[in-house]
Amino acid sequence: MSATTRLKGRKIAVHDMSLRDGMHPKRHQISVEQMKTVAVGLDQAGVPLIEVTHGDGLGGASVNYGFAAASDEDYLRAVVPLMKRAKISALLLPGIGTVDELRMAADCGIACIRVATHCTEADVSEQHIALGRKLGLDTVGFLMMSHMADPSKILEQARLMESYGANCIYTTDSAGYMLPEDVAERVDALRQGLKPETEIGFHGHHNLAMGVANSIAAVTAGASRIDCACGGMGAGAGNTPMEVFIAVAERMGIETGVDTFRIMDVAEDLVTPMMDFPVRIDRNSLTLGYAGTYSSFLLFAKRAEKQYGVPARDILVEMGRRKTVGGQEDMIEDVALDLLKNRSVAV
Ligand SMILES: C[C@H](O)CC(=O)C(=O)O
Ligand SMILES: [Mn+2]
């Protein structure tokens, strides 16, 4: 049976990232009004889940990650009441977001909390996942940089999150490094090894232009939630472009409930005009995928290039070589200075 035949009639939920992962290329400066306009457009197009917070999740506003145009609470209180059908989620990275921020977000009316850790550090998520469940939220464990661990390790970590109470587990290609086979192996391991009622999700980055192909591979292997960003607005070369994924899903008979033309219009009329620069595959974002480097490092590396004259691409390659992970943004400056030093020694 061909993949298209096998997927016909399969129901999945897409989760929009343009107002959370899309905060990275916007330096977290999306205004409350822009959040409201885009979220209403997504809701009207039939997107069932929309994420709203600082790019680095609840509590991300800081010197390390950058301050946002408004607080997480202001964004959530503005957007949640406008939704007719869509549910709003928030991301939380333990160590950045606190349980108090999770309670605040629940009080604002989020329906879903996604607790994200590096793919080998699920044990730090216990408190937040347990609280998410206690608050009656759709509680998701989100294993970042999943390319850095093999499928059996991803399953081991996913089982921890499931044991804490997560009802859905994501394998997350934060670097946009994975190829369809890598995604399929991880999703398959989760599908075989987790409880049948636990949902599986996939979050991709489009740095190697694999966002759509990887997401289809994930659905084929059993994922029922797929992250996409309208207009592709996300870190690096962006996330799986929502409107493209929806069009492909429709062609394959995968049921998303999203209106294909309406979502194209949201991308073209609302999200793309908001971009400070085209979110696309260029030599720097391509390097993220090629070197396995965390997509959110892109703008930090570009800033270091401006400051020290060291090419962002060289910095990103070195960050990948050192196997750095999310949260190590402060190392970008050290790497730039090391490269500068090595360059002057060589001259
Ligand atoms: C905090 C990151 O932006 C989370 C994410 O979207 C990823 O790891 O990818
Ligand atoms: Mn991401």
Secondary structure elements and their pairing?
Elements: H1 3-7, E1 13-16, H2 32-45, E2 49-51, H3 72-79, E3 87-92, H4 99-108, E4 112-118, H5 126-134, E5 138-144, H6 151-164, E6 168-172, H7 180-193, E7 199-203, H8 211-221, E8 225-228, H9 242-252, H10 260-271, H11 283-291, H12 298-308, H13 312-321, H14 331-346
Parallel strand pairs: 1-2, 1-8, 2-3, 3-4, 4-5, 5-6, 6-7, 7-8
The structure holds the ligand C[C@H](O)CC(=O)C(=O)O and manganese (II) ion (MN).
How does this model look, in words?
- The chain is of the alpha/beta class and 347 residues long.
- The chain has two domains: 3-274, Aldolase class I (TIM Barrel), CATH 3.20.20.70; 283-346, Helicase, Ruva Protein, domain 3 (Orthogonal Bundle), CATH 1.10.8.
- The protein has 14 helices and eight strands.
- Strands 1-2-3-4-5-6-7-8 form an eight-stranded parallel barrel, surrounded by six helices.
- Helix 2 links the parallel strand 1 and strand 2 (49-51).
- The chain is globular and about 60 Å long.
- The N and C termini lie far apart (61 Å).
- 55% of the residues are buried.
- The model has no long low-confidence stretch (mean pLDDT 97).
- The structure holds the ligand C[C@H](O)CC(=O)C(=O)O and manganese (II) ion.
- Ligand LCEJXURD binds next to loops.
- It comes from Panacagrimonas perspica.
Q: What small molecules does this complex bind?
A: ligand LCEJXURD, manganese (II) ion
Q: Kindly report the CATH topology of the largest domain.
A: TIM Barrel
Q: What distance lies between the first and last C-alpha atoms, to the nearest angstrom? A: 61 Å
The DSSP helix count reads 14
- SS-derived structural category: alpha/beta
Q: What's the shape?
A: globular
Give the CATH architecture of the largest domain.
Alpha-Beta Barrel
Number of domains: 2
Query: What is the residue-mean pLDDT, rounded to a whole number?
Result: 97
Range of helix content: 40-55%
